[in-house]
């Protein structure tokens, strides 16, 4: 699915029959599911027909995953019925008490985070946990069967390779084949394109259409509007656990879907100030670094970020982004090359030296590296301020000033929390991200007061956030740009990179495939560079 | 018997208990459970096996009892770490300490009429010479002039390897140890698999102890196992969780034992306590060498979920 799109691209294969006339494959009626304090699904209805691709659209927390967990037997609904249709469309009520029941009913799920064992082969993963597998395994037969299946649906996979050896796109095909091998007639895919390049995503879309053409019912969970518009036949929108609408995709557009999803008018453009970029602040020159497994992850990488500029970094996850952020924050050693910040050579210096030099870091792993989840929000927010007065008083900490500092940040950055004493892990993802941004941005401001030119490293800062929080995070980053901060912005959302960045560097296999400006490139071109098939 | 043959014969004899214990621990660890209680299960197996053999007059009864006692102790570890999700290292260490203490206590009163077992003579496994095969030069007397428990290993080790590499339960076992979330989603009962193989590992540790008290050094003395359980734990890493390589490692350690005996028999001037340290020094050397190549270990060796409790509701 091509993520660009104001106009609807032409559909390669239109459904053979009118989908509204096809028999119903599965119907969920009045599903209600509560968790302590949360009404996750409130009388939700969903009807999917054979041969259609049905998108389930909604923000994070809208209840999409809960609904699908009910359908796959992970959760039991408090109320409501599940009906499965036969080939003539006759419905019968069923109880799905476990994932095993769901498989028996022909319901297959492809999870966003693949359920694969890396040290086992493709074929071994396909038969894992299946009924009717003989005691002594006959892998040659299984491999032949899987190969035949992959041939039939044109999903090439190396059947005897180990999972850790194959690409993410291939892993996803394995997941789909796993469901098909078990005889799935209803296939659920949870955000299948989140980890793929645009080209790989287009291949998945083609595969889904081929499956639908064979009469499979496909449920496709997404929060990406473009994707829904290009791939799906119908779309059901959920908001705050409730049905909002079910529409024919042909009869709607992106703006209507966005409004239905968010419940209000959404700005689809970003106001960017005109900023004249200043001197180069962050300079990465010929850096070579290894990842945690000892493999070279950055190969002779050079980049420059100027004051008042956002340098976007595009790439499929795992192509050196993590190592890049770590090398420029002192968390990973560079074997060769130099990292200079505002003229100071900081290569391989301790993280605290980078902090002193004005380098701020919004890490990708919010609760792992960004926050100490069990500590109060106040402690987390003061983590880059406690070394200096006013919070430091000699070797002692002034708790009262620390708390006041946090209260001020909570106010200014609009963090929704019961108070500064709440443990950071209790906040929602969006508010955790705002808390990290508050800490990092104010650290940059203090560095500027010390006469430094601040640098902000932001890795996937909008990932997993809902639309409102995304808008907040983006505007904070743009304000930093206006204030003259050099921003290194890593994202996997290409349209976001196109909107936010002044220049975009594309990473593939630890190398820079090229640095381009949004005005003179396209999503397709970025995709080719991300796949390593093109350099600029 | 020439020198090489006699060293090899002692290596096999001394290595047998290490093979039992380490192959059992490999199965346990492959399910994602680290059981550092091998030493405790082994010594409890040794004392109860000997006591049962004395009471029944039958060494086979001793092996069965020793295995069941080892398995029962392993179930305690399983309950603590799988059901209660206690720290596996702490639970395993507790098992080793408790097992050692309990074995000393039982050794004082499990003899006939509550007498101490120490110094008592009981049934034992004697070596059985296999006609024909034992005439093969060098390896014949080493491999085919041994006791029944050693011969049983000729079956157990290939079976353990076959189970892991070629069968459905083996595939499930590996999946559980590598990625319990995936295994669970695929309908495999993670808890059942972990309990089962923790128990199997305990049984094999118990049998390892039985081989010591019923064949290797027949009888019961305090600290009979002398740290062999720990060597077995180290062997698992040495073997990169492969039963076949565990045999090679056990022979290496057994061989060190044999050399140590030979030197003592030759009347060496090296102090006995230094010679006794050799297997343990080798253990440290092996661990240092293996962990130097941690990158390799991560790729082909340690089950990824080893030591981690599994909780379905926990999001990762």
Describe the structure.
The complex is a heterodimer of chains A (536) and B (316). In chain A, the strands form 5 sheets. In chain A, strands 6-7-8-3-9-10 form a 6-stranded mixed sheet, sandwiched between helices. In chain A, strands 16-19-20-13-21-22 form a 6-stranded mixed sheet, sandwiched between helices. Mean pLDDT of chain A is 87; it is low at 1-17. Chain A is α/β, with parallel strands linked by helices and 536 residues long. Chain A has helices spanning 64-71, 99-104, 122-127, 139-152, 168-181, 198-213, 225-231, 254-262, 321-327, 351-356, 366-370, 377-381, 399-412, 429-449, 467-482, 494-500, 523-530, and strands spanning 24-35, 38-49, 53-57, 79-85, 91-94, 107-110, 186-190, 217-222, 234-239, 242-248, 280-290, 296-306, 309-314, 336-341, 344-345, 359-362, 392-393, 396-397, 455-459, 486-490, 503-508, 511-516. Chain B has a single domain, classed as ABC transporter involved in vitamin B12 uptake, BtuC, CATH 1.10.3470. Helix content of chain B is 71%, strand content 1%. Chain B has a two-stranded antiparallel ribbon with strand order 1-2. In chain B, helix 1 packs antiparallel against helix 11 (243-265), helix 6 packs across helix 7 (168-178) and helix 10 crosses helix 11 (243-265). Chain B contains 13 helices and 2 strands. Chain B has 316 residues and is mostly helical. Chains A and B meet through helix 2 of A and helix 7, helix 8 and helix 13 of B.
Question: What's the SSE blueprint?
Answer:
The complex is a heterodimer of chains A (536) and B (316).
Chain A: E1 24-35, E2 38-49, E3 53-57, H1 64-71, E4 79-85, E5 91-94, H2 99-104, E6 107-110, H3 122-127, H4 139-152, H5 168-181, E7 186-190, H6 198-213, E8 217-222, H7 225-231, E9 234-239, E10 242-248, H8 254-262, E11 280-290, E12 296-306, E13 309-314, H9 321-327, E14 336-341, E15 344-345, H10 351-356, E16 359-362, H11 366-370, H12 377-381, E17 392-393, E18 396-397, H13 399-412, H14 429-449, E19 455-459, H15 467-482, E20 486-490, H16 494-500, E21 503-508, E22 511-516, H17 523-530
Parallel strand pairs in A: 3-8, 3-9, 6-7, 7-8, 13-20, 13-21, 16-19, 19-20
Antiparallel strand pairs in A: 1-2, 1-4, 4-5, 9-10, 11-12, 11-14, 14-15, 17-18, 21-22
Helix pairs in contact in A: 14-15
Chain B: H1 3-30, H2 38-56, H3 59-83, H4 88-107, E1 128-129, H5 139-144, E2 145-146, H6 148-166, H7 168-178, H8 180-185, H9 190-216, H10 228-238, H11 243-265, H12 272-292, H13 294-300
Antiparallel strand pairs in B: 1-2
């Amino acid at each position: 699915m091509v993520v660009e799109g104001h106009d609807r691209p032409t559909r390669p294969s239109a459904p053979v029959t009118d989908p509204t006339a096809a028999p119903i494959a599965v119907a969920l009626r009045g599903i209600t599911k509560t968790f302590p304090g949360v009404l996750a699904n409130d009388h939700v209805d969903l009807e999917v027909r054979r041969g259609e691709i049905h998108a389930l659209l909604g923000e994070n927390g809208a209840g999409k995953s809960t609904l699908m967990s009910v359908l796959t037997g992970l959760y039991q609904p408090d109320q409501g019925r599940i009906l499965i249709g036969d080939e003539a469309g006759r419905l019968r009520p069923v109880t799905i008490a476990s994932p095993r029941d769901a498989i028996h009913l022909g319901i297959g799920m492809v999870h966003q985070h693949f359920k694969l064992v890396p040290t086992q082969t493709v074929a071994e993963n396909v038969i894992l946990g299946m009924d009717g597998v003989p005691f002594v395994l006959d892998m040659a037969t299984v491999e032949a069967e899987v190969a035949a299946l992959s041939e039939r649906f044109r999903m090439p996979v190396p059947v005897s390779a180990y999972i850790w050896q194959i690409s993410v796109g291939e892993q996803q095909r394995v997941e789909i084949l796993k469901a098909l091998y078990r005889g799935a007639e209803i296939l659920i895919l949870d955000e299948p394109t989140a980890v793929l390049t645009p080209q790989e995503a287009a291949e998945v879309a083609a595969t889904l259409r081929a499956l639908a053409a064979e009469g499979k019912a496909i449920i496709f969970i997404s929060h990406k509007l473009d994707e829904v518009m290009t791939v799906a036949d119908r779309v059901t929108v959920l908001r705050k656990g409730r049905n909002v609408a079910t529409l024919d995709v042909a009869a709607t557009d992106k703006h209507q879907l966005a409004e239905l999803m968010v419940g209000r008018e959404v700005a689809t453009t970003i106001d960017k100030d005109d900023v004249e970029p200043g001197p180069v602040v962050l300079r990465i020159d010929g850096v070579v670094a290894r990842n945690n497994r000892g493999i070279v992850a950055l190969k002779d990488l050079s980049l420059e970020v100027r004051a008042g500029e956002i340098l976007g970094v595009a790439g499929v996850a795992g192509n050196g982004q993590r190592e890049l952020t770590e090398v420029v924050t002192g968390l990973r050693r560079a074997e060769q090359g130099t990292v200079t910040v505002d003229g100071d050579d900081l290569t391989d210096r301790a993280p605290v030296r980078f902090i002193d030099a004005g380098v701020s870091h919004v890490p990708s792993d919010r609760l792992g590296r960004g926050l100490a989840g069990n500590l109060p929000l106040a402690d987390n927010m003061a983590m880059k301020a406690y070394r200096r007065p006013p919070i430091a008083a000699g070797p002692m900490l002034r708790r009262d000033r620390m708390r006041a500092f946090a209260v001020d940040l909570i106010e200014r950055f609009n963090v929704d929390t019961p108070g500064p004493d709440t443990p950071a892990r209790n906040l929602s993802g969006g508010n955790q991200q705002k808390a990290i941004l508050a800490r990092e941005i104010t650290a940059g401001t203090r560095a500027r007061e010390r006469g430094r030119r601040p640098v902000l490293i932001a890795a996937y800062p909008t990932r997993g956030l809902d639309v409102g929080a995304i808008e907040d995070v983006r505007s904070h980053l743009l304000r930093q740009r206006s204030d003259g901060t050099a921003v290194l912005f890593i994202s996997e959302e290409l349209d976001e990179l196109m909107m936010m960045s002044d220049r975009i560097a594309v990473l593939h296999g630890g190398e820079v495939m090229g640095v381009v400006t949004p005005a003179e490139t396209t999503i397709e071109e970025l995709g080719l560079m991300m796949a390593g098939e093109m350099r600029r | 018997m020439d020198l090489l043959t006699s060293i090899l014969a002692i290596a096999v004899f001394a290595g047998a208990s290490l093979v039992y214990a380490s192959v059992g621990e490999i199965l346990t660890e492959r399910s994602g459970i680290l059981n550092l209680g091998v030493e405790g299960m082994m010594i409890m197996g040794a004392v109860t096996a000997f006591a049962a053999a004395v009471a029944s007059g039958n060494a086979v009864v001793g092996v069965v009892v020793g295995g069941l006692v080892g398995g029962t102790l392993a179930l305690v570890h399983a309950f603590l770490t799988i059901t209660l999700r206690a720290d596996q290292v702490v639970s395993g260490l507790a098992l080793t300490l408790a097992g050692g203490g309990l074995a000393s206590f039982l050794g004082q009163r499990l003899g006939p009429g509550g007498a101490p077992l120490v110094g008592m003579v009981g049934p034992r496994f004697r070596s059985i010479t296999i006609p024909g095969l034992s005439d093969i030069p060098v390896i014949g007397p080493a491999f085919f002039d041994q006791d029944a428990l050693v011969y049983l290993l000729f079956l157990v080790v290939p079976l353990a390897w076959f189970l892991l590499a070629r069968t459905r339960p083996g595939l499930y076992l590996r999946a559980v140890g590598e990625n319990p979330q995936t295994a669970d989603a695929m309908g495999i009962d993670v808890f059942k698999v972990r309990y089962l193989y923790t128990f199997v590992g305990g049984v094999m540790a118990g049998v390892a102890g039985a081989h010591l008290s019923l064949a290797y050094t027949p009888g019961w003395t305090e600290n009979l196992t002398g740290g062999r359980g720990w060597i077995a734990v180290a062997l698992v890493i040495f073997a990169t969780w492969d039963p076949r390589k565990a045999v090679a490692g056990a022979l290496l350690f057994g061989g060190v034992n044999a050399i140590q005996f030979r030197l003592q028999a030759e009347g060496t001037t090296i102090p006995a306590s230094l010679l006794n340290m050799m297997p343990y020094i080798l253990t440290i050397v092996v661990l240092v060498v293996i962990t130097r190549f941690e990158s390799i270990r991560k790729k082909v060796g340690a089950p990824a979920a080893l030591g981690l409790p599994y909780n379905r509701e926990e999001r990762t």
